[in-house]
Every structure is written in structure tokens, then in C-alpha cells.
Amino acid sequence: MLSLVIPEGGHPPSAAPTTSEVKDRTEHVDMETLHAAYNRNIEETMEIRPDHPRYETWKEWRLSRWEHGEVLVECLRDDFGLKLGEGTRILEIGCDFGGDLLPFMKYGVEAHAIDLYPRPHFGRWSQDFSLNLTFRCEDVCRGIPYPMGYFDLVTSFDVLEHVSSQWTFVAEAMRVLKPGGMLVFSCPILRPIRDLLRKDPHYGIRGLSVMPRNVQKFLVEKVFLRGCGTVYDVGHIPTRRSLAKVFEKAAGITPADHVFKDGSEERQISFFYGIKPERFAPAVSQAG
């Protein structure tokens, strides 16, 4: 599920810069070499061994994030009119290896990344490629260390189901977002009847998503991935209704029309919808 949120009190994003403006600001960024460094870092620093049953699946998923980031850039820039340039501030929550965020660096944006685990490669890349890129190792459910209304764009992909408080996650993401900015995130959506027979999106175990969490943890750590050192870190996978309630409570907004779709069956994200204030639906529709 992929959602786009525009906070109340703002305006639609301004128009994208021209091709000449982008070229002037970004000709110093060697995106091809940065992409190669990203791929190499995944190969060298995966936290699980190559003999782990999910090694290839998780590696390929991470490698694919760069392409996902490029598609996201094009969509937000061309379909939603997001201005990308030196004055644009972007935050990714749960950045992992950075594949979704790094394609934005082509446009000279000010990028910030947060993850629960140390990611030293961000500091190295910031220096090697002269990127305006900052990394912080933080638990966002204890607060995002930025002032209110700081970012034009906040993104987070497949993180919401891992956090300790989904309400705090959403409230903090909306707090640091400028009026008229965008929150774009994805997470699996639980459909109890369907998911009885389907493999869960994290470990590929059929029916796991609908089981009690203590049973999930036991099956992953003690049965299917026994001896692999795997720690089950999935918290609560929301239903559409429960996710809507989280946004209503945390941000005072309710589900509206669809924003855009992407039928990625591999990740079990087959139904995407947008959450945004009703009054901004026409503006977003016109921008798309």
C-alpha cells in the first residue's frame, strides 16, 4: 500500500524546475558511480550471511530500491509537480541502504535519512560525492529531531509495520512536514481472509501475517529460520480500517480518493490509496 498525504493549511507543490535549471545544479553529481557504490555496499555489508534462506530475496529487494527511487522521483516531479532543487528538503524515515532516497540527489536537494541502525555509508557517500546528505541513527517513535514544518517531502517505505507506535510515527512525520508538503509511504496491508493462504511479505511463510504475534515470532525464530540468528522485528501489520484510524487520530485526516497505484505483487502491495484532507483532493487530482 502506498499513500500520499498533504497536510492541512498548505498549497499544492510548486512547479518542477526546467531542464536547464536542473542541469546547472546537478552536473557535479556522478549518479552512475553513486549507483555502483550503492550496489557494492549491499553486497559487502548485508547483515545476514549468504547461506541465510532469505539472503537472495532481501538482497534483490534492496538492489531494486534504486529503480523504485527513480520512479518515485519521476512521479512526484512530473505527476504531482514537486519542485526538486537546492532549496528542497527531503527526509526518509527507515532509510536502510538508501536506495529510495539517493536518486533525489541528482537534483541537488537537501536530504536527511533516519534509521534505527547505524548506516556509516551515508557519511562516506556525502563526502565522496559532495552530497548535501545527513544521516541520524534515531528511534522516530521517541521523536524526530527536526523542527516543525521543516521538510517539503517525507518518505518511508515498509517501515510502519515495524515501529513500536504507529500513531507516534504518523504524528511525528506530519509534524516535521511543511504545509503543502508531501508524505509518501508504503506498508503491507493485512487482509485476514486472503492472507490465510498467502505468504507473508517479510519471510515468505504462508498464513504468518494473520497469526498472533507470539506465534509469528516462534515460527520465524525457532522453526523456519532456526539457527540463522534471525530476530523477528515485525510489529503490527495494519488493515485499511486500522490505518485510517491511525491517521485520523494522529493527524486529523481521513481517507479520500486514490492517488496512484502500483501493482507490485512480489511485495504483496496490490492496492494503493491516498490519505489526504478532502479540501486538497481537487488540487492533487489536477496536479496528477
Labels describing this entry:
six-stranded mixed sheet; disordered C terminus; 288 residues; 6 strands; Rossmann fold; 9 helices; alpha/beta
How does the SSE layout of this entry go?
Elements: E1 2-5, H1 19-26, H2 31-45, H3 55-79, E2 89-93, E3 110-115, H4 121-128, E4 133-137, E5 151-157, H5 166-175, E6 177-186, H6 192-195, H7 213-224, H8 240-251, H9 281-287
Helix pairs in contact: 2-3, 5-8
Major sheet characteristics: 6 strands, mixed
Number of helices: 9
Identify low-pLDDT runs: 6-25, 256-288
What is the percentage of strand-forming residues? 5-15%
Coarse structural class: alpha/beta
Short précis:
The protein has 288 residues and is α/β, with parallel strands linked by helices. The protein contains nine helices and six strands; from the N terminus they run βαααββαββαβαααα.
